[in-house]
Amino acid sequence: MTKKNGTSKSAKAAARAEPQDTGPVSDAAAAEERRVRLDTSRMKSSYCNVCNATSTREEVVINFGLNQSWDRTEGDLEIEIQHRIIMSPHAAGKLREVLNELIGEYEGRYGPLQD
């Protein structure tokens, strides 16, 4: 048997073929073993400098766009909405938690954000 990285090929195959019974696995242990893999193959990046949001009982809608009106003294502002994200209130709550943590870390490094 050829060894590669200290383990024989047949030992690796046996480990894959015959799962060993290690007793009952708790939900916490199973959760610790799970990994999240992010597929970025179809990801697109955009710069947005405008955001607004609205909600209903069933969903939260966040629009992201681009303000290219550099002369703010004349006429209406025209905002090009580029992305609309629709999510459940539960997912929006998780987003709030993540943003609060992220902004807290940012302000810890660079000082408070100004309104």
Descriptive report:
Residues 1-10 have a biased composition (Polar residues). It is built from three helices and five strands; from the N terminus they run E-E-H-H-E-E-E-H. It has 115 residues and is an alpha+beta fold. It has a domain at 46-70 and 78-115. It has helices spanning 9-17, 27-33, 89-110; strands at residues 3-4, 7-8, 50-55, 60-67, 79-87. It is 33% helix and 23% strand. A three-stranded antiparallel sheet has the order 3-4-5.
Descriptors:
DUF3467 domain-containing protein; DUF3467; two-stranded antiparallel sheet; extended; alpha+beta; 115 residues
Shape: extended
Helix content: 25-40%
Please, what is the average pLDDT? Answer: 81
Q: What percentage of the residues does DSSP assign to strands (E)?
A: 15-25%
The CA-CA distance between the termini, in Å, is 67 Å
Unreliable stretches (pLDDT < 50, length at least 5) are: 1-19
Element order, helices and strands? Answer: EEHHEEEH
Rounded to the nearest angstrom, the radius of gyration is: 25 Å
Major β-sheet strand ordering: 3-4-5
Number of helices: 3
For the secondary structure, the number of strands is: 5
Largest sheet data: 3 strands, antiparallel
Which structural class best describes the helix and strand composition?
Answer: alpha+beta
Region (Disordered): 1-36
Biased composition (Polar residues): 1-10
Pfam family, one: DUF3467
Protein name: DUF3467 domain-containing protein
